[in-house]
Every structure is written in structure tokens, then in C-alpha cells.
């Protein structure tokens, strides 16, 4: 989906972060631009208003920022997927590889209901590893991932190979620089 000039111009491109050779797409510029942020939430609602989605699961932490207003507008629960050790109580967990390291995420067992159709959201989709791990923890609770959404997509990193046949939607895509 093409985005207006303000969305692309709001995304900062920072070379060599968090390590040399990585071009970091920083969405915080969207958050300080109310027009760009509103556009993102409006587009998400437009994309999913007729979808059969029971909840949205957001990846820590920038995913929370976009998913919270979307969940409120859609009248659906927001499930938080957090880094290991941040959630009290019983959790499901999954370790996974990042494009520049490894990580582990968790979700509260009480927040995931068997049979739920859940949209998984993050600010940026790169290799697909984080979203695939999110799918793993949600499936541990008997839920089904109905789609993946990211404000920014980097298809040149081949995330679709990792995410399989589940639909991926983004608002803006970059094809390498």
C-alpha cells in the first residue's frame, strides 16, 4: 500500500544502528507527527474493519504504541507480547534469532484464548523472526494468527519465507538501500 509523503518522510533512516552495516528505520518520527500517526491508525482500521479478528497481539515496545489505539477503535482486546521476564504469572515463551542477535518473548497464558483469531502487529517487519516467535507463543494457547501487520516492511529481507502463507500487510515498504 502506498503511503502519503508525510509517512515516508517521518521515518528516519539511521545507518549503522544498532551495529555497523544495519540501516535502522526509526518510526519515532511518526509518533511526533500527529498527522502521520493518525494516518497509520486510520489505515489499520480501514484494512481490518471487515476482518474476522478477535484480538490484536502487539510486540514490545513500539508495536504497543500503534496497536493500542487500533484495539480501542476496533473494540477488541490488546494482547502484549513482551521480552522475557517482564510479565508476572504464567507465560508461554519462545526463543528466536534476530537479524543482529537472539531474544526470547513471552505472553500471559491468561490473555490468550483457544480458538481466537489474532492479528499480530509490530512497528517494522524485517526478517520475520519476531513475528514468527509471536505466532508460536499464541499457538501455544490454542489461538490462530489471522495476519501480520507492520507499519514498515522490509521485503528484501525475505520475511514472507519465514512467515509462510499468513497474510502480511504493511503501510510502507523499503527494498534495500
Strand content: 25-35%
First-last Cα distance: 19 Å
* N-to-C SSE string, H for helix and E for strand: HEEHHEHEEEEHEHE
Class by alpha and beta content: alpha/beta
SS summary, helix count: 6
Question: What characterizes the major β-sheet?
Answer: 7 strands, mixed
Low-confidence stretches: none
Output the CATH class name of one domain: Alpha Beta
Question: Order of strands across the widest beta sheet?
Answer: 5-6-4-3-7-8-9
The shape, in one word, is globular
Mean pLDDT: 94
- The CATH architecture classification of one domain is 3-Layer(aba) Sandwich
Number of beta strands: 9
CATH topology of one domain: Rossmann fold
Helix coverage percent of residues? 25-40%
Topology of this structure?
Blueprint: H1 5-10, E1 12-15, E2 23-26, H2 28-31, H3 34-48, E3 55-59, H4 62-74, E4 78-83, E5 91-98, E6 101-108, E7 117-125, H5 129-140, E8 144-153, H6 159-163, E9 168-173
Parallel strand pairs: 3-4, 3-7, 7-8, 8-9
Antiparallel strand pairs: 1-2, 4-6, 5-6
Helix pairs in contact: 3-4
Notable traits:
177 residues; alpha/beta; Rossmann fold; two-stranded antiparallel ribbon; 34% strand
Characterise this structure.
The protein contains six helices and nine strands. It is α/β, with parallel strands linked by helices and 177 residues long. It starts with a helix and ends with a strand. Helix 3 packs across helix 4. The strands form two sheets. Strands 5-6-4-3-7-8-9 form a seven-stranded mixed sheet, sandwiched between helices. Strands 1-2 form a two-stranded antiparallel ribbon. It has a domain of 122 residues: Rossmann fold (3-Layer(aba) Sandwich).
Amino acid at each position: 500500500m502506498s503511503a502519503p509523503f508525510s509517512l515516508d518522510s517521518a521515518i528516519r533512516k539511521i545507518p549503522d544502528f544498532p551495529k555497523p552495516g544495519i540501516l535502522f528505520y526509526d518510526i519515532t518520527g511518526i509518533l511526533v507527527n500527529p498527522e502521520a500517526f493518525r494516518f497509520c491508525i486510520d489505515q489499520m482500521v480501514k484494512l481490518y474493519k471487515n476482518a474476522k479478528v478477535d484480538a490484536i497481539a502487539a510486540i514490545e515496545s513500539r508495536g504497543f504504541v500503534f496497536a493500542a489505539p487500533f484495539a480501542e477503535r476496533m473494540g477488541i482486546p490488546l494482547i502484549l507480547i513482551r521480552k522475557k521476564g517482564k510479565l508476572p504469572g504464567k507465560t508461554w515463551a519462545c526463543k528466536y534469532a534476530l537479524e543482529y542477535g537472539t531474544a526470547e518473548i513471552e505472553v500471559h497464558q491468561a490473555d490468550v484464548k483457544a480458538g481466537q483469531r489474532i492479528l499480530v502487529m509490530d512497528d517494522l517487519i524485517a526478517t520475520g523472526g519476531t513475528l514468527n516467535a509471536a505466532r508460536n507463543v499464541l499457538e501455544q494457547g490454542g489461538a490462530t494468527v489471522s495476519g501480520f501487520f507492520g507499519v514498515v516492511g522490509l521485503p528484501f529481507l525475505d520475511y514472507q519465507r519465514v512467515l509462510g502463507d499468513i497474510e502480511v500487510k504493511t503501510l510502507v515498504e523499503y527494498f534495500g538501500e
